[in-house]
Design a protein that fits this description.
Chain B: Pfam families: PALP. The complex is a heterodimer. Chain A is 41% helix and 15% strand. Chain A is an alpha/beta fold. In chain A, strands 3-4-14-9-10-13 form a 6-stranded mixed sheet, sandwiched between helices. Chain B is globular, with a radius of gyration of 22 Å. Classes of the chains: A alpha/beta, B alpha/beta.
């Protein structure tokens, strides 16, 4: 049951579009024509060497979407505000405030200083020479692999970009207390740190199972002064609890979303604050090789780091966008988190998007060794990009991710987060298909110290 | 960032150096010297070819003091030098020549700068700690402005990597394929293992067994970067000429993988023992091996080299201070174990007399308890690990076991340059005592009962928690020593003093130790 208490819309329309609401006009009807094989990520046929086709139609759709996302919070038919009445006013206020700060020079300057001096941006675009060599074929050809080093951020992941910005926003609108839900704990740590810095009270909801698996992050949150409340279950349940808490405390508390899911304006806000990743990448790519990246690869749990990297390049048709989800124990086993690969469209936590649901529309508990990827839903914007064929989504198993974790540690001396390891693991399948000299930027979304003990147990 | 060689090649007209032979045989045993036994006469005629930055003379009033840091013999005044066995002399000379050659090599500089930028993540921010500054404001609203130099944001989480990266590049230039290193907190070990993974070099890290226990996260990280550990205890009797200390047992590691971590059980099984073990290894394997020393200690040219590789910290700080407030910092504060992060911050400003330099050591259980690591406060001059410096020794010249809750400061010696700066009066060195610990205890705002906690570590955890709660930055326990000193320092500083504190590392590695002692 989604947080709004309504039955999620159960639809078996993967690859097709539902008739849209009148406000959308006729644009979404064209969706059905665009779902083509290369985008459907099953473990079977993968056509990795296709590039984006049907440019002009996709471009139109994306432009339409961008117009709409800032108004109704819709990305095609995805997104929206499926929430109880009590939240509607709050969301509108938040949206208004968000629009104001986007254009407020003083806020932007303060945010830029915080990102620079506190978070440690800009993060480097690092040529991973040894990984590049590792993927060279026998003729010495292969792509060039660059890592966008979000692991060097304060807090150890990209989550801080969004947390500090939203905490500043919350302070500006006069909220004294922040509430957030966290999976792997990285968003929790980032939020706790930002709240400490801005003198805000902080409550973090975390699933009991997750608290055990990422206990080091729980300790960090406590040290930073946050109250960590355990919730039966995992991230999805923590999110539900956080939203319930928010509905009950609308005037005093601020719900700091870490993931670009949930009702409008949350997905748009999180994306905007994370888009600094892509903006820096464009600039650094220009400095380093005088061009754009050819391929962008990022792991996808709910989609924050992926959107952060992709958003800047969505309109650049020649830049390929690849998201990598968690296939857990395997897609057939049913124990995975590959929402875009095997999910169906429904409403969850206030937004319409792909999600893992059973025949009766009940949410299926996801699984992944990477706690941060364990979410049965996904960003509505990514669902849209998948449907229009702008982005491709694949998945990678737990074991492949562990292998990548160890491989990158040994080759580059960088210990990537288990989440980021999924993106890095996908290079195994991707690189052999790429022409020589292709420039691939992989989002190294976090550092893997938190996963060290677990990986060593596995070995 | 370029590092400047401040060692001009000089021909001195007169030199007078002590040539007491017993120094050469006691590289691991300190000798207790009468205070004025070592003298260096100022050369009366000098012709110098300065290789890069020229060093202005430090104005001095009374007796002649050597102003070269270090001079061509590797001395800072009477401190420093090369008290090593014959076998190592050539390696050290070779290292020094290579270092000077690379100082002028643009290709090397460019490569190093690129790695520092893209791999390590420099430059690190100079962050205005607003809430911390507020905390130290007096009732009339006056107080210093506290800035943190964010070395905790470096790749691997501490300043140690600045030096590790540069030395690894240097080792490759020298054609060495095997790297050894010692480590206390594990940060230097992780940094070394990291760069060895990055550059594809074989690597052996020596770590005290006691340190391995208290810094297990770092041991995990080293293992992930390539270390395999299996256990076989082989007791080994080691006799050193003229020494009474005999037994050391080493955990033998089976040789898998490129990176090994060797646990050292001799002595207190901490940093000094790991250093001794690393030096023994180097003596045995000097042709094939480069020793990446982690701090500004050891025989010349290490104190100078490690300082130069960390000097980027101070250089960036100067630039950032100019950008932020159009001037220089008024006070620099850093924790001191071996002294690398402190030297890295201070070096740029040593010749700026209006910048105050403050080093903070670990007082452990208290200076009079005998269980501390406050070398510059309580130590006496002697030779340890190849250099003459202050060190903690008893009446027989035996090393006193140091103690500090933070593994990275748990060293009975200190870099010779710090000893020099202290004697010169250029830098001030303090440590944390019990009374201050109690004061700090009552200042903790959020907390519950400290049940079995030692009084002296209370202040430390207070500082550790304070930065976490006020700024959302969890500092390393080593850094927390410097932060704790702010309690004493800030009330004495005039309004608007710009203070830069070197936040030398992040505290994720100390979280488990902290929760044992704190009710979080």
């Amino acid at each position: 049951i989604s947080a709004c208490g309504r039955e999620p819309v159960s639809s078996k329309t993967q690859g097709f579009c539902l008739p849209s609401s009148p406000a959308d006009g006729g644009a979404s009807v064209a969706c059905s024509a665009l779902s083509h094989d290369s985008v459907i990520a099953t473990s079977g046929s993968l056509n990795l060497s296709t590039t984006i086709t049907r440019k002009s139609l996709t471009q139109t759709l994306i432009e339409t979407e961008e117009r709409k996302s800032t108004t109704a919070g819709k990305f095609g038919r995805y997104g929206g505000k499926f929430v109880p009445e009590t939240l509607m006013l709050c969301l509108s206020q938040l949206e208004a405030e968000f629009k104001v700060v986007l254009h407020d020079d003083k806020f932007q300057a303060e945010l830029a200083t915080a990102l620079k001096d506190y978070v440690g941006r800009e993060t480097p675009l690092y040529l991973a020479q040894r990984i590049t060599n590792y993927y060279k074929n026998s003729k010495g050809e292969g792509p060039e692999i660059y890592l966008k080093r979000e692991d060097l951020n304060h807090g150890g992941a990209h989550k801080m970009n969004n947390a500090i910005a939203q905490a500043m926003l919350a302070k500006r609108i006069g909220r004294k207390s922040i509430v957030a839900a966290t999976g792997a704990g990285q968003h929790g740590v980032a939020t706790a740190a930002a709240c400490a810095k801005l003198a805000l009270e902080c409550t973090i909801f975390m699933g009991r199972m997750d608290m055990e698996r990422q206990s080091s992050n729980v300790t960090l949150m406590n040290l930073l002064g946050a109250e960590v409340r355990s919730v039966d279950g995992s991230f999805k349940d923590a999110t539900s609890e956080a939203i319930r808490h928010w509905v009950n405390n609308l005037d005093s508390s601020y719900h700091l979303a870490g993931a670009p899911v949930g009702p409008h304006p949350c997905p748009t806000m999180v994306r905007e604050f994370q888009s600094v990743i892509g903006k820096e990448t464009r600039k650094q790519a220009m400095e380093k090789w005088g061009g754009k990246p050819d391929v962008l690869v990022a792991c996808v749990g709910s989609g924050s780091n992926a959107l952060g990297l992709f958003h800047e390049f969505v309109r650049d048709e020649d830049v390929r966008l690849i998201g990598v989800e968690a296939a857990g124990v395997g897609l057939e086993s049913g124990k995975h988190s590959a929402t875009l690969a095997t999910g169906e469209v429904g409403v969850y936590h206030g937004a319409m998007s792909y999600l893992l649901q059973d025949e009766e529309g009940q949410i299926i508990g996801p699984h992944s060794i990477a706690v941060g990827l364990e979410y049965p839903g996904v960003s509505p914007e990514l669902s849209f990009l998948k449907d229009v064929g702008r982005a491709e989504f694949y998945s990678v198993t737990d074991q492949e991710a562990i292998d990548a974790y160890r491989r990158v540690s040994r080759l580059e001396g960088i210990i990537p987060a288990m989440e980021a390891s999924h993106a890095l693991a996908f290079l195994e399948k991707l690189c052999p298909t790429l022409p020589d000299g292709t420039r691939v930027v992989v989002s190294c979304s976090g550092r893997g110290d938190k996963d060290a003990a677990m990986v060593l147990e596995h070995i | 960032m370029a590092f400047s060689s401040t060692n001009p090649t000089c021909r001195t007209a007169t030199t007078s150096l002590p040539s007491k032979p017993h120094h050469l045989t006691t590289q691991l045993i300190p000798s207790r010297l009468p205070v004025n036994s070592v003298t260096v006469k100022t050369p009366s005629l000098i012709s110098c070819a300065v290789t890069s930055h020229s060093m202005p003379l430090i104005e001095k009033d009374e007796e002649a003091v050597v102003h070269l840091r270090p001079d061509s013999f590797g001395r800072f005044g009477k401190f420093g030098g090369k008290y090593v066995p014959e076998t190592l002399m050539y390696a050290l000379t070779e290292l020094e020549s290579a270092f000077h050659a690379l100082a002028g090599d643009h290709e090397f500089q460019k490569e190093l700068d690129g790695i520092l930028k893209d791999y390590v993540g420099r430059e690190t921010p100079l962050y205005f700690a607003e809430r911390l500054s507020e905390h130290y404001k007096r009732p009339n609203g006056e107080g210093p402005n506290i800035y943190l130099k964010r070395e905790d944001l470096n790749h691997t989480g501490a300043h140690k990597i600045n030096n590790a990266v540069a030395q690894a590049l240097l080792a490759k230039r020298l054609g060495k394929k095997r790297i050894i290193a010692e480590t206390g907190a594990g940060q230097h070990g992780v940094a070394t293992a990291t760069v060895c993974a990055r550059f594809g070099l074989d690597c052996i890290i020596y770590m005290g067994a006691q340190d391995m226990e208290r810094q297990s996260l770092n041991v995990f990280r080293m293992r992930l970067l390539g270390a395999e550990v299996s256990m076989e205890i082989i007791p080994l009797f080691l006799g050193i000429v003229g020494s009474l200390r005999v037994v050391s047992s080493i955990l033998r590691i089976k040789q898998h993988g490129d990176i090994q971590v060797r646990a050292v059980h001799s002595g207190t099984a901490t940093l000094k023992d790991a250093t001794s073990e690393a030096i023994r290894d180097w003596v045995t394997n000097v042709e094939t091996t480069h020793y990446i020393l982690g701090s500004v200690a050891g025989p010349h040219p290490y104190p100078m080299m490690v300082r130069e590789f960390h000097a980027v910290i101070g250089k960036e700080t100067r630039k950032q201070a100019l950008e932020k407030w159009g001037g220089k910092p008024d006070v620099l504060v850093a924790c001191v174990g071996g002294g690398s992060n402190a030297m890295g911050l201070f070096h740029e400003f040593v010749d700026d007399k209006d910048v105050r330099l403050i080093g903070v050591e670990a007082a452990g259980f208290g200076l009079d308890s005998g269980k501390h690591a406050a070398t510059l406060t309580k130590g006496e001059v002697g030779v340890l690990h190849g250099a003459m410096s202050y060190l903690l020794q008893d009446d027989d010249g035996q090393i006193t076991e140091p103690h500090s809750i933070s593994a990275g400061l748990d060293y009975p010696g200190v870099g010779p340059e710090h000893s020099f700066l202290k004697d010169l009066g250029r830098a001030e060195y303090y440590s944390i005592t019990d009374e201050e610990a109690l004061e700090g205890y009552y200042q903790i705002l959020f907390d519950s009962v400290f049940s079995s906690i030692k009084r002296s570590v209370v202040l430390l955890y207070a500082a550790f928690k304070r930065l976490s709660r006020l700024e959302g930055i969890i500092p390393a326990l080593e850094t927390s020593h410097a932060l704790a000193y702010l309690e004493k320092l800030c009330p004495t500083l005039p309004n608007g003093t710009n203070l830069v504190l070197n936040c030398s590392g992040r505290g994720d590695k100390d979280v488990h130790t902290a929760i044992k002692h704190l009710q979080v």
